[in-house]
Amino acid sequence: MCDTCGCGDPEIVPVHVHESLLANNDRQASHNREHFQESGVLALNIMGSPGCGKTALLEATAVQLGGHRLRAMSGDLATDNDGARLRAAGIPSLTITTGTACHLDARLVHHALHDLDWQAAEYLFIENVGNLVCPAIYDLGQAANVVVLSVTEGEDKPLKYPVMFQRADLVLFTKIDLLPYLPGIKLANYIAALSRVNPNPRYISLSTVAGQGLDQWVAWLAERKLRIAKSVA
Amino acid sequence: MCDTCGCGDPEIVPVHVHESLLANNDRQASHNREHFQESGVLALNIMGSPGCGKTALLEATAVQLGGHRLRAMSGDLATDNDGARLRAAGIPSLTITTGTACHLDARLVHHALHDLDWQAAEYLFIENVGNLVCPAIYDLGQAANVVVLSVTEGEDKPLKYPVMFQRADLVLFTKIDLLPYLPGIKLANYIAALSRVNPNPRYISLSTVAGQGLDQWVAWLAERKLRIAKSVA
């Protein structure tokens, strides 16, 4: 729920209030980013619709990166379900219960850092609230944005939620094992729609159920991790 | 995008601003509701995640209710895609382009009414922005809330987005033709999760691809339409 949300109504919530809100968030995000970079932690903001497969992705990632130090925090309006799934998968994780908020912000992430031994991590996955709109504009201090889009959601989603896909460093097309059962739906059309809003997109298609595409995802993670290590050195 | 969104940050957007926002919206929604009731129009707020099947539902409804007078408005951040699909399906429809807003509000709907011959309608479908959070708290003047949840989204969604499901007059579990391909997913678990947040839920499971459940949906529509007709008489 978003009972504090003045989205789209500048007549009521004045512009200077919005600007101040985002400026404050950006300041806190820069502070978070410094923390992550100094400690050589690759922090990723994992975003996507409810049920697109964010948690399943991280469960599969835990198996793939068994020898590495992973940490996670997951945002949800209610329940500790995702946190519990991630801990069961072997990732020390905590839940940020947002209550009324439809997205994470840099302050919520910073508070949560106090309860997680994040400095021990090589990879810190920040699983955002399921939402293709609001999370896109709140910087958390991450090194990269990963946007997860299930192929069950419809080929035109990048066009209908352009900001999210413009700001994606990587798009993961998930649940591709279901493509044979989705009449008329083609991965090529998803890629074409993504290319229209993001001229040079990085994307991987994968299925955690069928084990497809995970090697490419892990390679992308390793490559991004290397950049952080170099900036620390 | 939601660059005007103060969600979850009462330190920055003061409480009286939020209260004023929602009070103004409720006032406009009451005005819309009077319009709909005086004209005997059944207005429905159709909500759900991106890609849950809201537009496909309305396309199938157009076939089922071929002899009736249907109208629609659909909200999206960008594109006229849904409006175009609905018009192609024979429903006079317009698109409310929200730009930055993650939900429809009563004022946007009221403005849109000026461009649609809604008084001619028996049924007015208001297809909200794809989002399981923010649309739930903005009354539009509808007679009922219909929440669409695809069975690909995960069984715990009612628990994780409780406000949306608490306020649902009807929940439609869509894409049930995919259930045989979703390992371990059971419709009974969706229903159990819904029952935990909404003690007496109305729900229908359906598939527009397989043509299942549409007769129950059309019966529900007819029953709700009858209530409006009685209140006019």
Walk me through the structure:
- Two copies of one chain form a homodimer.
- With 233 residues, chain A is an alpha/beta fold.
- Chain A has one domain (23-232): P-loop containing nucleotide triphosphate hydrolases (Rossmann fold, 3-Layer(aba) Sandwich), CATH 3.40.50.300.
- The first copy, chain A, has eight helices and seven strands, in the order H-E-H-E-H-E-H-E-E-H-H-E-H-E-H.
- A seven-stranded parallel β-sheet of chain A has the order 3-2-4-1-5-6-7, sandwiched between helices.
- Chains A and B meet through helix 1 and helix 5 of A and helix 1 and helix 5 of B.
Strand arrangement within the widest β-sheet of chain A reads: 3-2-4-1-5-6-7
The quaternary state of the protein chains shown equals: homodimer
Please identify, by name, the CATH architecture of chain A: 3-Layer(aba) Sandwich
Shape of chain A: globular
Summarize the amount of helix of chain A as a percent range: 25-40%
Number of strands of chain A: 7
Unreliable parts of chain A:
1-10
Query: What's the CATH class of chain A, please?
Result: Alpha Beta
Distance between the termini of chain A: 43 Å
Structural classification of chain A: alpha/beta
Rg of chain A computed from alpha carbons, rounded to a whole number of angstroms: 17 Å
Assign the CATH topology of chain A: Rossmann fold
Indicate the mean pLDDT of chain A. Answer: 93
